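Internal tracking record. Fields below are filled automatically when a chain is submitted to the structure queue. Please do not edit lines marked as system-generated. If the sequence contains nonstandard residues, flag them in the REMARKS field before resubmitting.
Queue: standard
Priority: normal
Entity type: single polypeptide chain
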Amino acid sequence: MSVEEKFDNAKDKVAGKAKEVEGKVTGDKAREAEGKAQNLFGKAKDKFADAADAVKDKTEEAVDAVKDGIDNLKKK
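SYSTEM-GENERATED OUTPUT FOLLOWS
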């Protein structure tokens, strides 16, 4: 995950939490719900980026394994 993605996701989580607290303090249920949704959206983006990174890592490992296998066959 890039630094920009981390910053953007953190921004969503912090802004969402702030809106949620503001909604609780003022009694504005809509603002509170908006904040919760934004906070969850930031967390979901983190999880998605982590999953994408894991898939990328596994794909690179698989490609390397295939290349190693081909190199070993060429040596025989």
